[in-house]
Amino acid sequence: MSPVTHQIINNRAGNELAKDLSGIFGWSRPFIKTLIPAEIYESLERANALELKDGVCLSKIRVSNLDGLLFIHSAYPTVQTDSVFFGPDTYRFTAAIKHHFAEHQYPVKRVADICTGCGVAAIVLAKMFPSAEIYGLDINETALEFARINANANQLDNVHFLKSNLLANIAGDFDFITANPPYLVDASKRDYRHGGGLYGYQISLDIIDCALARLNPGGTLLLYTGVAIIESTDLFLEEVNRKLSGTHLSYIYEEIDPDIFAEELLTEPYQFADRIAAVVLTVRHLRN
Fold this sequence. Notes:
alpha/beta, Rossmann fold, 8-stranded mixed β-sheet, two-stranded antiparallel sheet, 28% helix
């Protein structure tokens, strides 16, 4: 769910304290110690995943479900600079990956998931391609720690998580590169939100540059990101067209949700934006 939805639901009367495990690990509500079994409480303590505040407990982690798989990530609200976010973008992003491979079949032996976060896309791809080498890359050590735990919990041994600024710390080329990078202008410059540049799409442009230099012939880059539409103009698409038009690359650009994170339109960086849209850019390296 979006942060605004989370806030609204938690602020409803009767939701001040968690009543069950869903309230603790899904809604990040305060809870009384006796609500959970002692072994779970002790495990949270050992993992430094508990916070005591005003006589009640708070879990520092949340647990989300996607396609029957469980993923741990940062608790709500994600205010720390190293927070690891899981929300509507995660579901749209993984749906775009699955849709791509439902439409296109080609050999996939080596995969990179840039800005992997808690590892969702990398883990989904590891299940889709059990014989492939899958690499999840991020600059956030907390994200990588969560990702490794999630891979172990889902019993996957063909996915590896590495600290890397984009593809800087990993060698070789790839059959499939994917990314769901930060794309907002965030005053706190949190890793998972701040995309850089005037409207937050600089990291997305950097990913295009580095990824296209590392695709095998016939390989694909699938980039999910958010773009500010300024006076009916998609400035990110204009940059994409400048980069890719006239090259040996084929590409498709799709707007898959026209209106996301509407609350950002109330902030100063977006004072001239009509809306923020979720888009998917798919770039194919044509075979020589």
